[in-house]
Every structure is written in structure tokens, then in C-alpha cells.
Amino acid sequence: MNRQAQAVMLLLLGGAVVRASVTDLYLRYVKEGLRPFLIAAGLALIAAAIMTLWYDLRPAPAPADPGHGPDDDGHGHAADDDGHGHHEPRVGWLLLLPVLGLLLVAPPALGSYAVGQAGTALASKQQSDYPPLPPGDPAPVTVLDYAARALFERGESIGDRRVRLTGFIAPGPDGQPILARMVLSCCAADGRPVKLGMTGDVPVGLPHDTWVEVTGRYSDRIARDPVNDAEIPYLAVESWREVPAPRNQYE
Amino acid sequence: MDVPPGATPGTGAAGGATPDVPEGKAAPGGPRRSVGGWFGSVEVLAALLVLLIVFREQLAAALAGPRLQTWTTVFVSVLVQAVPFLVFGVLLSAVIAVFVPRSFWARALPRHPALAVPVASAAGVVLPGCECGAVPIAGSLIRRGVTPAAALAFLLAAPAVNPIVLAATAVAFPGAPEMVLARALASLVVAMIMGWLWLRLGRADWIRLPHRPELEGTSRGAAFWAAMRHDIIHAGGFLVVGAMAAASINVLVPERWLQTLADSPVLSVLALAVLAVLLSLCSEADAFVAASLSQFSLTSRLVFLVVGPMVDLKLISMQAGIFGRRFAFRFAPATFVVAVGVASLAGTVLL
Asked: Looking at the record, which segments are called Disordered (chain B) (predicted)?
């Protein structure tokens, strides 16, 4: 791979990263907080591409820098660069794969398949006490928040209030649909599911990965996740409706 | 020069790239560098891109199965996550390679290599980043005359003991603050042992840093950008290899298998050590994954946290690329053994 091809590759990678971070595409793969760093990194890649092309396409004598006589060595070395370039930066071709992944394929956020692969994330208590539920009837809560309250304090802070949560349908341990949401700490590679069983008006017959908004109350039923033997809390569903996928599909 | 307009982001770089191609073809020296006399890399790249865009639909259909789709998502996300750290690390290593004079390192580090090792390990504390950035930086340090033992100690310590990683560990293990201490201590000790081990047993000819003519003789600006370009392409390429491996493991190894290993204290340590190598998580995220592996003992999870930032598939791949294979295939197994040993000991004593 010669320098101009490397420059094009940098340009593509930088462009793909910037494009993913100015749209909401990056939210499928990483946390929202990474966005400024992604944009900065993408711009740096584009800058590196432009500077590479600029140095490479400059007329060879390059009298711009009289203080440094051997400046045109940069071009003299171009041939050497190629000499070992045949075996050395060949690995750079692989950078085409992430470019392809981001620009052409843009795979979706992790869904029900990943839920089945991993154990529910709520294995240890993360917080010592829970604040009261947000106001409103039903109170809007996240799947993670509900599951933590249901497991670690047996629903004490929920009481008999109605809650509303949004998640997608995934296959549960007993074949019944469960409500799930993926939790990221850094990127999708460490994404872990939070699983929530449903009783009452269970949304049956929906294909996996359908997003639903369910309203219900605390249920004291508990199941075991066969994957990591952790507890899966339940929600007594009173009503549900299909919703479009939220902007950020992770919690 | 109509290159910068081609760089406009947003409009999709795939489209932006095509205008560059004829220019690359016409460039001085372009034909001389061609492969096989007919096609230069730019032409190959352009042809590949055209093919990919034409067969985009088929490609998307081929990747539609849930397993492949999850693979692609994990692969892309490992790379998206790593890109800022890679660029930051490469930027810093280019600055070290071009702007920091050699004499600086002679003054900053103790002259005796055995003393330089602990200083370099401790220096890792101030560098917030993960392991993808540390590899090019360590390569750059060696190039600038820092004793390899110290640079390698820095390479191992920096991703594991920096403040962001320790803070993430504290958040992930709210009930066990001793985990943070154990992780920092064990990682520092492993880094120092490996540094000293290198002084005793290491051979300079195992490290084969690629020849870099562009770093000498050119103006500083040209050398800086050449170092940037080279390191990103090079380390990035190996990062892709590592990300592919990590995505494959992520999809192919269901967590269920681990369950059966969790009950034996010895097997659980080994299982999580191997898992840390295979998963190749970013060191800023691994604490959260370790926290979720609750069926395992704290000691085995500490091993996971100490091994992960020092030895994993993407690191081995990047080290092989930057320092040479002879180095990576000796250094990585040795680090693995030392890290497992030290972390198990630290876990037994501290946790």
C-alpha cells in the first residue's frame, strides 16, 4: 500500500467516524459521552490524510523550507518506503473493514440474540439505597432501574405505584417472551442484557427485537437465568403497546 | 490542490474518496510504486470500493443472520471505541518521536535501567487511555533511546493503573474498594517484574522496530505527519485483526460454558485469565464485565482485570506488528504467566 492509498484509507476512516458521530449511528456501538472524542479523532484522521497527500503531491524540489536542506529526502525515500512497503503496511488494508462496516453495512444495535448469549447483568447490588420513583402515574423508569429495585429491595421503593418502561422482546429462559434492554459500560463488546420477566397481560406473538412500552406494577415473582444463575425479576404487566426503537437503544 | 474538498465529512467519505483517485494516478512517482507494474494501491483501493458499493445490497443480505449481525456489531463497536484512543496514542507517540529530544529521556529517567523500570511503570498513572494507545507510544519511546525494559514496563502499567481505569473499577465494585487497590498494586508489580525480567533475559534483537526512513532528514512537520500516518495504518490494521478475534470469541463462546468452571478455585482463575486474553476488552470497560461475572470468586476476577490490559488478542496482534513477532510471541506468554501469578497472590492476600 503506497502513501496515497494510505491517505485515502485515513480519509475514509476519518470520514466514516465523523459521519457516524454527527448522526446517531455511533449510539449503536458506544456510549454517548465518547462523541466529542470520536469527532476529534475523525478530524485528526482527515487532517493526517490531507497532510500526507499534501507532502506527497508537492513538487519535488520543495524550496519552501530553506533551513532544512535535506527536505526533498521525503521524496527520495519514497522508493525505499515502497521497498519494505511490500510486506510491512499491508495489514493496513484491513482498515477497509471498519470503513465498510460503518459506511455500508452499519450493523444494528445489539438485540435479542445477544440477550440469549449472556447472563442478566444485575448480579451484584450497585447502590445502597434507592431514591423515590420519579413523579407521574405511571412513573417512567428504566428497565435497569426497575430490575434493581425489584431485586435488591424487593420492590420497597416501588410500592403499589404503576411504572412504565421501554424495552425489546427477547426469548426468556422458559420460552416466554421477556422484556430486555442492553446495558453498555464502554462499547457493545461489553454490552450485557438486563432481563425482566412479565406476568399478566404479556405481549405474546410479537417477533423478537420488537420494541414495546409496558405499564405495570411490581411483582414478587423471581426466575433464574440459566446462563449465569442470577435472578430475573418480574413485572405484572397491565397494558402494553408497540413503540419505535428509541434513539439510544442502550441504557 | 483539490484534495481538501474531497475530505468533507458528512457527505460520506466513500463518495469523497473517488475524486482523489485520478489524482493519485497522475501523481509523480505513482506508477513507479505500482504493484505488478499495472495497478497501484490507489487503483486497487478504488476498484475495491466500487465493487463494495455495487454489491452493497448482497453484502447486507449476507450479514443479516443474527449471529453474523452480532459479530459485525461487536467488531465495529470495538473499533469505534478504540479509534479515539488509538489516534490519541499515535498523536502522542508522533510527538515523542519528532518533537521530544532524545536528551529529555536521559534526564527524565534514572540512568540505571533497573531504576528506570519502576519510574516508567509509575509514569503510567498519568496517562489516561487504554492499551491500544500504549503500544505505539512504547515503540516510540524505544526508538528515542529509552531502555526497552522501561518502555515495556510503561506499556504494561499505563493501561491498567491510570486514573480513569481505577475510577471505573471503583464504580464497578462499589462494595469492594480493596479491588481497586489490589488491581493497581498487582498491575504495577507485574509491570516492574516484566521490566526487570527483560533486563535479565531479554535480547535486544527480539525487538525489531520497522525501519522508518521518514523520521530522519525531513522537516519536523513532514516527519510528524508521516509518523501519524504510518502508525495509524499500521497499529490500526493490527487492531482490526484483534477486533475480529474478539468479536468471534464474543459470539462463539456462550457465557453458559463459564458457569461450569466457576466452582473450582484453580479452574476459575485460569478460565477468567484465558477469557481476558480472548475477549480483548478495553481496560476502561473490563471492570464492569468482571463485576457481572458474579459467579466467579473475587480473586479470579482480579486476575481477569490484571491480565486483560496486559495480554490480549488485539494487544498481541499490535505488539507483533510494532515490535516484531519474535518479541510478541515471547513477551505475551511470559507476561501472561507473571500476571496470573501475581494477581492470584494479590487476590489471596488482599481480597
From this structure: 1-29
